[in-house]
Design a protein that fits this description.
The chain has helices at 13-22, 31-42, 52-68, 82-89, 96-104, 129-145, 158-173, and strands at residues 2-6, 27-28, 74-77, 109-113, 150-153. The two termini are 14 Å apart. By secondary structure, the chain is of the alpha/beta class.
């Protein structure tokens, strides 16, 4: 079972997933951030601010490989469909093979974290707050177009957000 935790940059996904992991849940970290850190460490150019299309294709490849290695219930820090939003942010539709790959990975439930009132950039997150909000809307649209049930997670302290996600997951599974 693949449970997606998503939302715009800086909405608290990684923090909430850390809480879920400490509660004993299996978590898959964000592929985009992992790729950025790997590229920065080796001085590579497959970065969203240097080659966003090449970056998105590499993220998709990494994400699908990592997801396909799983055979248990897992909480994903973003998923393949999120890439559709980033293509649209740049005013284009993803390539057909990108969309086909997104269609193959079925997710059980999508949790969209609402944006936090404060926003900070870092070495891997360079979007401004307004762009982060736009990305969140595009992510919601991408999942909705594919027929996924989206559960919005309100702004709460991280432990309460994690418990909200667990409670809603149980409801959906019953």
């Amino acid at each position: 079972m693949k449970i997606v935790i998503t939302g715009g940059p800086g909405c608290g996904k990684t923090t909430v997933l850390g809480v879920l992991e400490r509660m004993g849940c299996t978590v898959l970290s964000e592929s985009a951030r992992k790729l950025i850190m790997e590229e920065q460490a080796k001085g590579g150019r497959a970065l969203p601010w240097d080659d966003w299309q090449g970056f998105q294709l590499k993220v998709l490849e990494m994400q699908l490989r990592r997801e396909n290695e799983l055979d248990e219930t897992v909480f994903l820090d973003r998923a393949a469909v999120d890439g559709v939003a980033y293509y649209r942010l740049h005013g284009t539709e993803p390539p057909k093979e990108f969309l086909a790959a997104c269609a193959r990975n079925g997710y059980t439930i999508i949790f969209l974290l609402e944006q936090l009132p404060s926003y900070r950039t870092d070495g891997q997150r360079k979007e401004d707050g307004e762009t982060a909000g736009r990305i969140s809307g595009l992510i919601e649209q991408a999942y909705a177009e594919r027929g996924y049930k989206i559960v919005k997670v309100p702004v709460l302290p991280p432990a309460e957000r994690a418990q909200y996600i667990l409670d809603k997951t149980r409801e959906v599974m019953e």
